[in-house]
Amino acid sequence: MAGHVVLFVPTAPVTHATRELVGSPDLVAHWNIPDADWPFVDTARNHLLLEASVPPGDSSTELPEILLSALIARLRPPHAEARSINPVFRLFRASVEAHYREQHDAGYYARTLGYAPRTLSRAVQQVTGRSAKAYIVDRIVLEAKRLLAHDRLTAAACANTLGFPDASNFSVFFRKATGMRPGAWQATVAVE
Prior knowledge:
This is Helix-turn-helix domain-containing protein. By secondary structure, the chain is mainly α. The chain is about 65% helix and about 0% strand.
């Protein structure tokens, strides 16, 4: 899987609707974007990248926030989809958010939530299109990328922060998930 990561604080979007969306407990990790919307999403993302490359002082500080709001508004899932999120998935998502730094096993979440592993995996699959394990891996990778790109942590520091026994285990995990070593991935982000 390849793509761009757009990191922002929840207060960055400028419209009330987009701030509500990013702060919503109903926010899902995987949205199905209709084919007809992809040109708009790509254009908004590319414009945001272009604005991010402008030296400070050469552009309005409001433009990135406006463009981020446009991108989020274009990605917004239908209201019916947000309201119909499986309650098992809601509990799972909240538990992952609270414990992904220490717990990487889907079985842990099934046990603590009181569901059979298959029940949990079906609920996650229904909402995200991915298995419970893949959801956890995606969340850990997202945080690892944030730590590498934004906080500029080393692989060893990421390993410690994300509950891996050592940098080697973290590096193997990261490489399996992304196809790149943490340091190599971090170097590509620094170039952009």
